Amino acid sequence: MKKLTQTAVAALIATLGTSAVTSANAEDIKVGLLLPYSGVYAALGNEIEAGFRLGLETFGGETTDTFEIVTEDTEVKPPVALGKAKKLVLQDEVDVLVGIVSSGVLGAVRDFVDGAKVPLIVANAGNDEATGASCSAYITRLSFSNGQVNRPMGTHLYEQGVRKVFTMAPDYAAGRQMIGAFAESFTAAGGEIVGQDWTPFQKTQDFGPYMANAKASGADAVYVFYAGGEAISFVKQYDSFGLKADLPLYGAGFLTSPLYVNAQGPAAIGVIAALHYVPTIENDANKVFVEAFSAANGRSPSEFAVHGYDAARALVLASAGGANDGEALAAALSKTSFDGPRGATSIDPATNNIVQPIYVYETVANENGEGLTQKILATLPATPDAANGCTLGG
Ligand code: BEZ
Fold first, then answer.
1. Is 50 in the pocket of ligand 1 (CB under 6 A)?
2. Predicted model pTM
3. Among the four residues 109, 227, 228, 241, which has the most C-beta atoms within 10 Å?
């Protein structure tokens, strides 16, 4: 927590001289990591934390400030997460919140964060509203928005010759927004959505009945959003149901994330999806990141790891620039810009949402025959999301 007021700093300058002030300015920034450590997104929470800690290790030397981390488990439950956010801010007195995986959880904590004027770096949840109609000067997103990842896929699939699609997703904000963005651009291009199913979130074990609907629909392809434990089950069941050969499977790229693609095994081969990060992106910053993450964890990083890593980098940049309270940190975060593992990465000050390229990738077998990897098929240009009612840009 920042302890020195401007007046105290001025007094120190007067009595001790500038060199003493340099070390007096080194602050301890308390970070509240608000992530799921249980529930269907538990693995995602752990991965974001691993990326965040690696980011602090890698970039922390660029600031004289130090970072203290307090963690809380959202359990992927909006009311629980809101209670934990209040505890981190009011009891632990954190300077900044980092995390949130579920769009539902982000929707639940938005008003509290905005009212408490505590900066929140969103390190996953894609909820479009948080950088749209419900945007806040205190919320900056270093991950992706649900529309941003899925909108380009509607146009891309139509251009690839797909005409009739059946969609499926868990029935909560992320599922509705991701499929909504895909369907809007796909139908605008001339395609047809021939059927849709919304599976009960965190409750669906057997996707068979929904897959039967897809098979009977007359679609030429299926487009879905699933992540975490649900993605592992869905991809395996899609393959064992025998659908993959007749109905190619497409989706938001969390479906076959490098985090759990090896748990899906050969069932994931041939799935084509879109994402803002895969470990096979070729640039210098990604080479450094993949090497460091692999050395620490014995496997390649996923999109969830890069969210944590880039969130740490943005926080370090803000702190190195002298931001030392909630207001200043929030203002500095919205000016973030760097060349990172995903390519050119910046924050759009009109919405506080990230601007980044989108990669269409296919899951393929590794050349050495061991495990699976991501073959990039297309790089779609970075375009900022529309403000959608957000007035941060004036
Ligand atoms: C979401 O709820 O926004 C979300 C969860 C997991 C992966 C991607 C998005």
1. no
2. 0.93
3. 227
